[in-house]
Amino acid sequence: MNKYYSLTKTLILSGIQCEKKLWFDLNDKIKLKDKAIFRSGNRFNDVVRKHYGEGLDLSDEKKHQIVIERTKEAIQSDNINVIYEAGFLFKNTFIRADVLIKKDNQWTMLEAKASTSVKDINISDLAIQSFIVKNSGLDVICNKIIHINKEFIYKGEENYKDLIVEVDITKEVLAEENKVEHLINKFLPLKKSDCPKKETGPHCKDPYPCNYIDKCSPPDTDIKNVSYKILPYYGKKIESYCKTNKIEKLKDIPKDLLQSSRKDYAENYHQIIQEAHIKNTGWINKDISEQFKKWKMPYYFMDFETIQQGVPIIKNTKPFEQVPFQWSVHKLSEKGKALEEFSFIDFDHQDIEFNFLKKLIETLGDKGTIFVHNHPFEKGVLNKLKEKPKMKSYSDQVDSIIDRIEDTLELTRKNFYSPEMFGKYSLKRIVQAIPTKIYYESEDEDAVSDGGDAQLAWFKCTDLETKPEDKENYKKELIKYCSKDTEAMYDLINYFLKLKTSKRLQ
Length: 506
Prior knowledge:
Strand content: 15-25%
Low-confidence stretches: 501-506
CATH superfamily of the largest domain: Ribonuclease H-like superfamily/Ribonuclease H
Structural class: alpha/beta
Largest sheet: 7 strands, mixed
């Protein structure tokens, strides 16, 4: 910990979400790959600074005591009316204010959030800041949230004039301020205390996903003794029964209680999953081969990657609109022949969506079955693209592509389960249960192994400070990652085609 303080605003917000989360932050913080540096928050902060104009910017100063001292000097100065990342310390708690603006010798504090609305956690955020700032001697008369205008459409040329929305939440902040001192007194001792006891629950994801979930609920590794919580959509009835009867293991739930029904899963899939783990054997639907009959050669295996930009850099896109920037396609022309591989990737070309669609149509042709994993995503992207003014002429071709799509996720849910999947149907989990050479995890810090990594790589590739050689490396990693998904789908379909249509897999 920094020698000048024990708590920060961020730590207090962690404690509000969960005291156990705060304890880990203070005592056993895990090292995470930093996925926030190049995300939209930083770009939004750049827009904020341009919007409010010239002032003292302390964001590059990492020594907190220096930040505090320079903030005091700036507040006393007659020549400084705007301070970015001002620092304050009170009651062993340090905070930094995004923006302080002086007008007529009165100060307004603004908190920048790269989101499209004000959330309850934002009020708590500013209440903590306001309490610390006021007790440090600065009388802030107004508190505002700055957030992103969701209706903004980027027209190019770095014009973000209408991107920012200001919301005055002074009244709400004042109502919360009186709670802050109590929270500080409550959380300060956690640094030297034992880890608090806290069961997992909705708070693990609200308002933010917790990074310590594996510490509180370690992933199941014992196939026969898995938790009932691996069941997809197990519902309140099962949860209530298990809590009442102090049951944790899936094997201990009465079979007749597992009467699950969802149209996108096999009939009684909860019973199937339970039996698979008890007997440590897989399951395949005896009628799966009937579904093969509607598939037509050539087979295509397709996957998209998209980016959501808080601050759009692609013309005619909105904040947080899903912009497709990459696809991978593997093609099997005839059974027994080698796979052909195709790919598309673009980072900052202003016609990125048009080029994405045009080259995809050329690659997929007009016949053959197209496999995707989780079809609402790919279909959703295609349907949005065909409505774009420049791409409406491709509408019929897009509809034809959509009609040819088969979903390997739904196919697997209805027809296949293996204990190695531990209740999950992602490609990353399925490949652990079938013969394949696909491996997603990597020790390489820059490797792309999930969707979050892919978005991070995109942000880095579009950042002006990223070196050309690094951009090229990220590009290679993105192509490799997306290609893994399409090749994994091929391996899955190939596995199904080779299976004997027996009820149980040995």
